[in-house]
Structure prediction request, 668 residues.
Amino acid sequence: MTPPAPPSIDILALGNAIVDVLSHVDDSALEGLGLSKGTMTLVDSAQADRLYSALGPGVECSGGSAANTVVGAAMLGVRTAFVGRVRADQLGEIFTHDIRAAGVRFDTPAAADGADTAMCLVMVTPDAHRTMCTHLGASVELGPDDVDEALVRGAAVTYLEGYLWDPPGAREAMRRAVAVAKDAGRAVALTLSDPFCVDRHRADFLDLVDNDVDILFANESEITSLYETDDLDDALHSVTPLVKVAAITRSEHGAVIVGDGEIHVVPAEPVAQVIDTTGAGDLFAAGFLVGWTGGRTLHDCGRMGAVAAAEIISHLGARPEADIAALVAARVPG
Amino acid sequence: MTPPAPPSIDILALGNAIVDVLSHVDDSALEGLGLSKGTMTLVDSAQADRLYSALGPGVECSGGSAANTVVGAAMLGVRTAFVGRVRADQLGEIFTHDIRAAGVRFDTPAAADGADTAMCLVMVTPDAHRTMCTHLGASVELGPDDVDEALVRGAAVTYLEGYLWDPPGAREAMRRAVAVAKDAGRAVALTLSDPFCVDRHRADFLDLVDNDVDILFANESEITSLYETDDLDDALHSVTPLVKVAAITRSEHGAVIVGDGEIHVVPAEPVAQVIDTTGAGDLFAAGFLVGWTGGRTLHDCGRMGAVAAAEIISHLGARPEADIAALVAARVPG
Prediction:
């Protein structure tokens, strides 16, 4: 087998194309809405409308987990592309503008009709934690034909968000992307996204991790949900033999990176004030993958993830506001 | 003449109904775009699209000068209403949600077709100053029939933004509102909005100030533009005999309030870091008018404006994020 050609891009991400609507709620309001704090709930259009009308004034910002990651990676200087579906509406234009303006190649055609561009109601509690309700909208229109095989073949890493297992067409798109990436000798990365999402798709995720995933991202509750255990060590023992690298984020306790027969415990980057944890995992993955595609040590990869995550939790929204390339260069010199 | 009945609301604002798209630019980019820093330029749909595609990623937030004022006033606890036109599109839904969620009565029907909801591209330079390009869109559909006369008759203050002189139908709506308010013995307040806007409508503004305005808001460049002088004192001498109160904002130098035969120099409220000056004048007007309708001294009115303005310039966007009622109560105890 001939080694693969040098990659033409560094990170290709496939994900739901979402605009976030961020608002502040207190814990009792969250409870009154029947939502489980810190998680993502799928809602239909009527539920989204009802919920939105119960919320206070908002701020809108492009989002989507894998989209946030690839925007962060682009801002860190690597070559990136994104596959996901918006509708040709105002929120779709905003999403498309923002991701392209960040330097990400984004060519998936917008749906001309059907459901509106996906919207995520992000409710931020006073402790800076976020709870999300997503109306997938036009994201469900993504299908396997949207996967540009040449793009996948040329990408050093194809990065998938677990959330994309929810829309059935998108799931097929993921499967095609995985098959093409593996055939081309490229790396596949997956984030488990959310413990309830893991619950919905455990068999698929176990199968993917077993057979296809090279780099796995998860937080504690997601990885323990995957292996249906209460114990992080148990989960790590289960996953370690199956993937090249597992990066487990632990909020203010930093991250644990397992790979190459080593375990690296990476501290969290200090933050003056945590404002909104939306996108923390997404930006950790961005920093980590930029390190990984740049041949950095696993410890440095983790540190780069931690610095990018620290920036995103220090303000509202999941897209970087500061020059994260400068922050990473200063904090994790190469 | 019988005195007017007790007001049923405190502040009614008429203005352009706008969603802001905030992004960061440096001074050279602003110059390259041919824009005059610190001002508002009207653009058509094609110009807005061209400009938007030249800008970096953005954050969307409801805006509109008078709308920002009345949202701030509602958050400060007074009874408010807003008249302005959106289209029935996604940005129109966002504007409508946000202003109602803040507690403002907003019943102007959305346009079913025609131009999109108005959008303002707000470019924030590293010195935190904002430069704006506005596509008036559906705002131009506002007309005199949208003025609810009973609402105007019941409002202690009818507040008008100078920007509303740009769309001709809105101008007629303003004129009707002014006539009704004066006939009902209520106060009329006007903000001059922008020095270029003053240039476009000087004769109308001079006439309004001469005959109808009780409370005038302006910054230094707007009031000196109105009287075509370089000297603030000259402008103050011109305006003082014509209005009950003139509140002239002077950025970090605070404000000068002239009224009741007195001049009050009000210091600016200290701010840890100025992030974005968008909405500073709008929130000054909010705090001031809440003080005025509550019977506070002119000095307290100015201080209340300064505290509200300080909150808005300490973050991105022109809608308050902090509890400004608590801030005002703490800083300007009544």
